[in-house]
């Protein structure tokens, strides 16, 4: 085969391979709290959206977004749609665990919100949790391959140890009840616990931590929670993308900054690229 034809063939192969890759991001954007002063949402929201646009994840799960924040992100991301509800009333009150998806590459097939409690279908507080906690579920179709992926965007309680453990058990029970254990699955979100904790170990009985299985070494800080602290090294990893039946090509804890070098949120986004 002539060299120029070989080169063209190689470039076409690389192009097709890159187009087949998809990306998932999990990001706690920090709720709209004026007491955050220079880190207040109104001061950083444009930089947050610009970061999302730059990485252009096919699926983005956010945590802590209040209704005004979700609507702002939705307005600014013109080629995205979202699913999710406020956790305090199942409508617009309280924080969302919203799932945004790029409508150019992804199609929504089904969605449902579950409360992380003994009463998963109604607004409720579970076990020893301090407040309502939810998981937003979405079944999506990849428009380029027709593959489906099931995504669970979670925000576990920050105080209740029993609630966090039971939340992991509940998520696994949903997967079993849906009979999707042989499908492509991503459980993402702010789980408010460290990698060696019991809630994560429960999830890892059926799922894999993308940080550990990435084909290339994880990039960025080892942790995800920064607390808006510019001086302290980010080592506490409490945000996750756990997968099943998915090949993870790369994993990144995104450490981008605002234009004034302040942090975008008190959490770093987690970004994976998958086959």
TrEMBL record:
- InterPro entries reported in the protein's UniProt record: CCR4/nocturin_mRNA_transcr, Endo/exonu/phosph_ase_sf, Endo/exonuclease/phosphatase
Please name the CDD domains in this protein's record: EEP-1
Domain (Endonuclease/exonuclease/phosphatase): give its ranges. 25-267
Looking at the Swiss-Prot or TrEMBL record, what is one Pfam family this protein matches?
A: Exo_endo_phos
Which Gene3D superfamilies does the record associate with it? Endonuclease/exonuclease/phosphatase (3.60.10.10)
Q: One GO molecular function term?
A: 3'-5'-RNA exonuclease activity
Mind telling me what this protein is named? Answer: Endonuclease/exonuclease/phosphatase domain-containing protein
Question: Species name for this entry?
Answer: Aquimarina atlantica
């Amino acid at each position: 085969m002539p060299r120029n034809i070989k080169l063209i063939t190689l470039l076409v192969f690389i192009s097709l391979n890159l187009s087949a890759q998809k990306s998932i991001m999990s990001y706690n954007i920090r709720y709209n709290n004026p007491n955050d002063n220079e880190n207040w949402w109104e001061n950083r929201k444009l930089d947050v959206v610009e970061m999302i646009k730059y990485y252009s994840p096919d699926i983005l799960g956010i945590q802590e977004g209040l209704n005004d924040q979700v609507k702002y992100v939705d307005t600014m991301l013109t080629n995205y749609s979202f699913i999710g509800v406020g956790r305090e009333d199942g409508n617009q009150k309280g924080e969302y665990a919203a799932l945004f998806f790029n409508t150019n590459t992804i199609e929504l097939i089904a969605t449902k919100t579950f409360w992380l409690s003994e009463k998963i279908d109604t607004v409720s507080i579970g076990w020893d949790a301090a407040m309502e906690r939810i998981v937003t579920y979405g079944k999506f179709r990849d428009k380029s391959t027709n593959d489906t992926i099931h995504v669970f965007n979670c925000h576990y309680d920050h105080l209740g140890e029993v609630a966090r453990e039971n939340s992991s058990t509940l998520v696994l029970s949903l997967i079993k009840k849906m009979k999707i254990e042989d499908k492509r699955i991503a459980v993402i979100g702010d789980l408010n616990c460290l990698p060696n904790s019991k809630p994560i170990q429960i999830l890892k009985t059926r799922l894999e931590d993308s940080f550990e299985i990435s084909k290339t070494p994880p990039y960025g800080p080892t942790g995800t929670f920064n607390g808006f602290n510019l001086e302290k090294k980010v080592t506490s990893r409490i945000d996750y993308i756990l997968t099943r039946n998915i090949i993870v090509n790369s994993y990144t804890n995104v450490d981008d900054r605002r234009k004034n070098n302040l942090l975008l949120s008190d959490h770093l986004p987690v970004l994976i690229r998958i086959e």
